[in-house]
Amino acid sequence: MSSVSVKVDGDVQRLMQRLGRIAGMDKAGINNAIAEGLRTSTIERFQAEKSPEGKKWKQSIRAREEGGKTLTKSTALRSSIRSDSSADGLAIGTNDIRAATHQFGDTRIIKAKRKKALRFRVNGRWVSKKEVKVTIPARPFLGVSEEDEEEIKELLRQSLEES
Predict the structure, then answer these.
(1) What InterPro entries has UniProt attached to this entry (predicted)?
(2) Lesser CB count within 10 Å: N end or C end of the chain?
(3) What is the pLDDT of residue 163?
(4) Which of 160, 162, 163, 154 lies closest to 34, judged by CA?
(5) DSSP percent split of the chain into helix, strand, coil, nearest 5
(6) pTM (predicted TM-score)
(7) Sequence-ordered list of residues with C-beta below 8 angstroms from that of 86, at least 6 positions apart, any chain
(8) Gap between the Cα atoms of 12 and 15, Å rounded
């Protein structure tokens, strides 16, 4: 069996007091503040149409042809972003069924089910097809940006200073 030995010199009492204060920090409150900050920045990405890395989303066909913003025909996806936190951790996400498709992208085959063909417009022209392959590009909205990281570091720094 192995063992580890640590020798601490200096103001050990002060160190122990500081560690005690850190252990007593309001972890639930800190995690809640971080979670809310991340939820807010996630929602703001829909306005900016950018990923957490700052990369512009590929414009959707609907946004290009009808105007408006990509992923915001309705506010359902953006409004579904929720945060949850406790002393043990935090999470930001959505239960919207379309979220994974937009976050990661997808390729699908869509087939006509109730009629002989699908009918849709392409470049202003009506087209009929029995099936069509559709590729939806990834448009990441969930994640932690560099700005988010800096805000988290600052929040943690302030919390440690107050301890």
Answers:
(1) Phage_virion_morphogenesis
(2) N
(3) 66
(4) 154
(5) 40, 20, 40
(6) 0.79
(7) 28, 31
(8) 5
